[in-house]
Records
---
Amino acid sequence: MRKDKDLTIELRLQGLTYSQISEKLGIPKSTLSFWLKNIKLGRKATSKISKHIHSTKIVKLIERNKKKTEIARKKNEAIRKLGKKEAKIFFKDPLFVTGLALYWGEGYKKGAEGSKWKSIDFANSDPVMIKVIIKFFFKYLPIKKTDVKVQIMLHNPDDNEQSIKFWKGVTGLKEENFIKTSYVISKSSKKKITTHLPYGTVHIRINNVNLFFKLIGWIDFLKETM
């Protein structure tokens, strides 16, 4: 026993953690804690132990994140498959088919291909398209008006007030649904825009991962009907 204790102390002074010593010698950590409680470590050993503990924490964090990512991937895939089956129920409604086709053409889909951001986002400058997609979203997605965010993309900051007023009328949404306007400046024209859309381009966003994958599942069904 004395030999084991002496070896334990030697390994600790070399900068090994309790876990490393326990694994190496087969001695319980409770015993190590009792044997080593009064051992004073030098700066080099302390630094080595700290680095190992930090490294171990990082490895465990990476493993946890990988598990969470895989769980999320399986969940999203299941929602997508369910959405694909569900689409058949709604397919006789012209609004469903039209709205789905519009989103397939103009909506954000990269989140289903591995991109980190996974949210519903439809962008266009055509007020009729925006009206249709709004009707589609509210009829087929379990959302409230407060779930919808609108962002206007403009070239000229002077157009902001009239643009908000215009898109409020088109969408039927309130000013609190509108987030900060984004201004796009053309580098090629050296910030001198000669022609631009008077009301800009508008993004209709719903930040809900589950609904995003439901919508992607609907598109999967639409593709199969082509």
---
Amino acid sequence: MKRRFTRNELFRLRNLIPIDTLIRDQLDIPSKFSEGFFRFLCPVCNEFRTATSPSTNLARCFRCEKNFNPIDMVMIVKKMGFVESVKYLKNLLPDTPHDPAALVKGPRPKQAGQSNTLAAGRKDAVSAIGEILKNLSLKAG
């Protein structure tokens, strides 16, 4: 059976759309900063015992012990299936060529004389996508 989405497409959606920006600006989930962490109202148990991790791009509820990636979050909040959620998120990502090496999670160990441009490239991409999502939410509102 042919897959609807490539692994690369799913990887990009899970890793390049910042989970906190998605929660706050696109899904309009009540959120706040508390104790140095971005917290949001869990769509499963309706508690604020949550946090996001920018390094893994995951959200977690510590009360109901659920982890969410961007696709999971859209599925639950928008009450959509997997395919519809992926299509929703694909509309948020620009169709621009990207360097797969820049998508590496976190910094790689440096070799002698090597700078950490991969992590910087990913940070720049995430920042640019965050700005695009903010602009989209401003236009929609």
---
Amino acid sequence: MAPGRRLGFDKPVRRTYFITGTDTGVGKTVLAALWVRYLRRRGGQAAALKPVGSGGRADARLLRAAMDGALPLAEINPWHFRAPLAPRLAARRERKSLHRAEVAAGIRAAQKKFDVLLVEGAGGLLSPLGEDFNSRDLIAALGATPVIVAPNRLGVVNHVLLALEALPRRAAAAARVVLMSPASTDAAGRANAGLLAEETRARVFVLPWLGEAVSLAGALRQARVRRVLAALG
């Protein structure tokens, strides 16, 4: 890559994408890890954070591995609470409280360091993260482009449309939707992307089945995966 060029642009362009989902466990971390690894392998100044988390820290560790340890765990996941509950409740169990202003300030500091910043939320779009905010609030505060991750199965169209409806209008218009495919795709799975494209202005992508234990290197060898990641930005 020629000096001064990053991610296909003549000048570095700072962009923030907020990866949220229709629920917990839908594949947000897998997407974030694949995407940040792909960008960095192309020479991009990119990072992925999961600022708020509860329960185990496997998600944050996967992001750290995807970046080859470029950031310490404390920077990737600065607000972590032990109980496997919504972060607001997990924080209260530790007699702590978390507020939008401090989390947004921490993310803004990271925005200044990277051309592309991927921010992963915890749980679904409206799941409470702190005393006064959820992922939707952070998307608005950061001016981030939302990326909604959802399982590619029957019923997902309704779930995605509800998430888009909950976003601020400008954010919804810029949103991306990533459907994560199961091991075998049925008729609904084959039709969901097209139906969503009819119903919304969001750009819709489908990632293939990546296996129970995802190998980042193995997934990135798939041309279809690389095409999705290239088109997301």
---
Amino acid sequence: MRVIAGTAKGRRLVPVPGEGTRPVTDRVKESLFNLIGSSIVGVRVLDLFAGTGAVGIEALSRGAAHATFVDKARAAVRAVERNLRETGLDDRAWVIHGDAFAHVRHHAGEPYDLVYIAPPQYQDLWADALLAVDEGDVLAPRGLVVVQIHPKEDHPVTLTRLDRTHERRYGSTLLIFFKPSEASDAAG
């Protein structure tokens, strides 16, 4: 696992010890950022269930203004902190050892332009996190939510302010993209 592009290109990332995380592969990460393109420059990123921090770190390396990493596992928080130090990107990051849902529900700061949700598999946490984002004020009006799950986990989620726009499958990884609905844009 490494940083693919940008200022920290080629830097290796340390994994989270144990089997509690499923890090995004370099192939999936590269495809994700190819889809996002240069719109990552200058944005604020929220990496929920951060694990190694690979997605948020890639975003910072490619020019994101700031990234917040949230994970309740102490080993994951230590891995993210180390990866940020070793890539030299820690000055534009905030690492929270805490509950992803609490952060989304009680977020009072500037909204995020990209929210990345990649929770532990087969617990339906992705749907709960997506609902929390849909109900909260964590996402910017023109923001993007990306969910990373195993394709077998996918099911419809009833949302009021977000629309599922598209998806991409890479083997056993499914990325699902959500944007604020036009109706919520008009209301805001």
